[in-house]
Amino acid sequence: MAISVNSLQLAAWTPAASFNALSLTCFTMPMSAHQMLLQWHRLQSRSAKTWPSQALKGLDEVLALLVPDLAMVRRNKIDGYLQLYFLNDRTQDNTLRDAVFSALSLWLGILYDKQPGSARAEIAASAQHNENWHIIDVSLATEQHAGACAMAKDTLAFDALVSYANHILGGKTLAFRSGETRTFVPVTAHSSSLFYGLELVAFPPSQDSVKKHCYWSEAISLTTATFPEREGIHLLARPSIRNWGPVDYPSSYGGNARSMDMFIPDEAGNYRHTSLKYYAQQEKHSSHKSIEARWKHKQDARILALINRLTGSKHHEQSECIVPIIQDQSIWLLPRLSHGAGDRFFAGGTGVGWPDRMDITHSLNQHLEQAGFCQTGTMQRVTKRKRLNKPFRENNASQLRRQRVLDTLNHLETGLQQLTLYLFQRQENTRSVVMNELITLLGQPENSTNTQLRWPDGLCINLVSLAAGPLSEQLPTAELSEEEKTGRTPSQIKQILNDRQKTLNRQTEQTMMQYIGSVLDTSGSVACAVLEMNSSLRGKACDPYVFSRRALAKHHILPQVILIEETMPAEKYTMAVRDCLRMLGVVPAGLNDTDPAPAALTVIQQNRHITAGQTMPAITLPLAARVVNHCLECALPQADGTPQWQPYATALLTVLTGKFEPFSRTEADNNNKRFERFFEQALQQIDKNGPNLVQTNVSHIGQQWASLTNNKLAFDKLQLLNQTVTSSQLPNTRLVRLNRDEHRIPLHFHKGEQLDVSGLFDWEAASRTFYGLKVPAQTMIPHKHNAGLSRHDNGEHKYSARNIRQLVRPEEICVVFCQPQDEPQTLALYTHRLRQLHVQYNEDTNQPFPLHELDAIGKGLSF
Fold this sequence. Notes:
By secondary structure, the protein is of the alpha+beta class. Helices cover 26% and strands 26% of the residues. The strands form seven sheets. It has a twelve-stranded mixed sheet. Strands 2, 9, 10, 11, 12, 13, 14, 15, 16, 17, 18 and 19 form a twelve-stranded antiparallel sheet that branches. The two termini are 51 Å apart.
């Protein structure tokens, strides 16, 4: 029998009491120089509307390459000023001034080579002027205030602390229990914000034993954070696996830029690390379609030629392939691989297991203690128990499941006891498979035919089989003949193609609408549909997914798409049937009357993107959820921000069809008030229904509701519309803030041989802040054994580095708002247990019910 892990160690440190300040040297580029750069940028881009900071594109990367002492870069997006920071007093360091001057000169010669040389020289010479250099003393102390989190006296403290840690760890030894050692190589900062920290890379990388051109190593991200009920600024370390190798295909249109990592030795042989962003571009006019790396900030600049120019190296020849280039005692050039760029089958796999987490943390701690840091205490398991009724996870609960379905149908339409499930099939056995899944989920029916299932409590499900038809056929693609292209510029051709594609998409959606109308009985009641679609279309420009779902939703049908593959796992239909019930808004539990009713607030967002050859706009939308009489309701905002409550299924159909009032992403005062008006009125309306527990995720809602962020968080006081809301004004409400940001949660590990850990933990003296680890999903079981194995085990059973180490990430659960009689630990445990309550899954989810259900609505955004 496995022994529970009751204590978690953390990769987290705080500065010692005697370590209370850091000195920084700052270089500020004159505003007159930046105004000149902005004018040049507008001329080159032929656009009058550009952010001032865009005039400095690429400078960060050049500085990081040529000025290795750089601690951090600050660029103001609106005003455009540039500030470079260095540790300690360097105001009289002429060598540093020369390095900054050279970096500016080279960058100006690359980006603004068409501009007058005398003007470029004048801008670069600003690095030599005394008035542009000054020293800053940064306090690491925090202020006394009424908030729940520590507040730094100096906003520079966070970036200064992580820069200092990155500096002092550079060149130090990383030792593994097997005896293997590596060296921490620090990255040179080239970001205008260190919110995501700086990183150390374990050097040298390991070479794959089979794929000789592939390499991997550990990359340790250093970030800073504050936490509710804890004093001071914390330094956090989080290791991950970095993979490098050849890039065999070009970057996708509109995709993210790749990174070319460089490890550069100094005269003493000590390496430092930086990177350049690039696009892998294919030469269209070449007979063999070679791929080249082109700098992100100047598309006609080849990466290898650029590196030669910046470093003065003559060793890197132009290549038709993007591959690692390694030279002993010289520069290492390693193209980074990532899932986001479409790369697969990494030499180093992903994830860091328990032994390597422990070894990395112990090595870091040895060096950080000598530099004035103290490792934090451990997290301890909360031993209190809380059991919930989970009919969708337990056997012999089919009667209660049917009752929840009946409650939902009656909530949608008074007296309704029938549900129609349309099957838009591409396979012959779809009906029998779906019927079996329904019987497994809801129990043996009293009467059953090929088209109907009826149970003794009155629930009836009608199954209607139809051909998928145009709903699953690929979309037409707009084209232009060579004759039509003649005499037109590339931008004109692109615009014509976009317009034609929009027209084709509208025509295709109309064809889908007509087809649905011709085969369905339009009774007006909400129905569900299972639509089978060929998996080969997924993600392509001809994918009909978005338009098929929207066409069905316009007929009051909740769509569930199943991708058809050669090998069809039975679980696909199980999940599809259960997700149909989730889309209806079926509440997954018989909630106890003594527990507060679950509720949630969130903000769902869609970035601007291209789907089916058509540009979809950016969208932001606040949502609320509550449980009323065992039925799930959702609130969508009206134009002024007032919440409008409706059954969950109705709200989902509204989002799928695009018939809602989207909010802007701007921070304009009137826009913020719309968000806050929605939150305030939704809370008041939830409160009127009796005792409740409202869940929020600060990563999703913090930008629109600032009082939930760490620097403004105060217990039992909610700031909305310039007013303070207290527990006496919302006597039935409790509010829990969740946070899953991996950059702001400490990395955990434990002693012992237990391979997975779950449960609720507290951190030293905190009484309202807890940390939950969900039960690992079934998909993680094949990788469970890997978690206990080191990639650096040199024994006879050495394990392949490629294997995945997949561990559960902890989530912060903070009871922000509660009543005087409440016990925060009980509320946190209740929130943690609500991860287990979902119609769709038999496993814990990242978000509890009903916050998970609101996030699922966000996946339906397609406009």
